[in-house]
Amino acid sequence: MIKLSHARAVLLAITLAASAAHPAFAGPGENALDDVRILSADDMLGRAPGTRGSEKARAYILSRFAQIGLSPVDERFEQPFSFAKRDGATVQGVNLIARIKGTQGGKAMVISAHYDHLGVRDGEIYNGADDNASGVAGLMAVAEAFKAKPPKHDVIFAVVDAEEGGLRGARAFAAAPPVPLETVALAVNFDMLSKNPKNELYVSGTAPFPYLKPILVKVATTAPVTLKLGHDTDADGKENNWSNQSDHYAFGEKGVPWLYFGVEDHPEYHKPTDDFATVPQDFFKRSVATVVQASLALERQLDEVTRASGR
Predict the structure, then answer these.
(1) How far apart are CA 15 and CA 35, in angstroms?
(2) Torsions phi, psi of 33, nearest 5?
(3) Cβ distance 186 to 110 under 8 Å?
(4) Average pLDDT rounded to a whole number, residues 198-211
(5) Left (φ > 0), alpha (ψ -120 to 50) or beta: where does 143 sit?
(6) What is the rounded CA–CA span in Å between residue 121 and residue 109?
(7) How far is CA 279 from CA 57, 66, 266, 284, in A?
(8) Total domain count, the chain
C-alpha cells in the first residue's frame, strides 16, 4: 500500500471533490460561487497562514489550477516564504503562482488575490467569504477567461498568503518574482468583491496612473455593476485611500503600476459573520463579470499601458 503524505492526501481528496462539483469546464465565472462557498467553509478554519486550514485551502486552489489548465512559471506552483509574528514565532507561508503564456510575449500582467484570512479566534471561525475568498474566485474567473481566449501577453496569477499580517506573501513575491519585475507592466489586485448594497465596485489606481483611466472609464460604461473610480487619494482622508491597504502596494513599492478592485467596508468586515450565507449572490456574480471584463480590456491594451508608463 502506498502511503500518502497528509498534504498530498488532502490535495487528492479535494481534487476529486472539485472534479465532482465541476464535471466540465464552465464559462468564466460560472464556478465563482462554488469557489467562495468551498474556501469559506468551516473546515478551512479561517485559512490562517501556517495552519491545516491554509493547507486545505491551497489544495483546493491547486485543484482549480489543474481544472483550468494553468501551468507553473517554473517547476512548481508553490513559492514558500517565512515570517516572524509579533510574539517571535516563525510562520511558514506559501504563495501559489501560475501563468498563461501569451501568444506574442513581451510584457506581462500580474493578477493577484490573497487566500489567507484571520483563522480561529476565541473559538469562532473567521471564514472570510468576502475577504478574500471572493477575490480568489474572481482571479479564477479571469484565468478561465484567458484560458478560453489566450492573451497576447503573459498573464501571471499570484494567489498569495499572509496579506492580513502585513502583505507578507505579496512582498515575498515582489522580492523574489518568478519573472523579472521590469517585465511586469501592470499588477491588478482583487480584494473583497462580493458585498455592496449599492451595486458598487471600486477600482483604485487611476489617480496615480492616469493613463489607465480611459480604459476603466470605457469598461464602466458597460459593466454589469456600477464601477466607480476612486479611493486612491487623501481627498476624503487617509483612511479612505486604499493605495497601501492590500497586496497591490507591494508592487507599487517596487515601481510597478497597479490597480485594485474591491468593495467598501461592510458590517461583516473582519467579523465571524463574513461567511458564504451573507454573500449577495447576484451582485457577486456581476462583480466577477466586471473584473473579468476589465482584465481582458487591460491586457488588450498592455502595450499602450507600457508606453504610457515608460516601463
Answers:
(1) 13
(2) -65, -40
(3) yes
(4) 98
(5) alpha
(6) 36
(7) 19, 26, 11, 7
(8) 1
Angle 281-300/213-222 helices, nearest 10 degrees?
A: 140
Alpha carbon 295 to chain centroid, angstroms: 12
- The three cell numbers locating residue 146: 484567458
C-alpha cell belonging to residue 119 = 483563522
Is 162 part of a structural domain of the chain? yes
Residue 125 has what pLDDT?
98
Is there a domain that residue 1 lies in? no
* CATH code, domain with 66: 3.40.630.10
> For residues 39 and 147, is the Cβ–Cβ distance under 8 A?
no
pLDDT at 19: 39
Q: In this structure, what C-alpha cell is assigned to residue 288?
A: 466577477
This prediction has a pTM of 0.91
Q: Residue ranges of the alpha helices (H) in the chain? A: 6-21, 32-39, 52-68, 135-148, 168-175, 213-222, 248-252, 281-300, 302-309
- The confidence score (pLDDT) of residue 27 equals 67
DSSP 153: S
Task: Give the type of residue at 68.
Answer: I
Q: Residue 25: give the domain boundaries.
A: 6-309
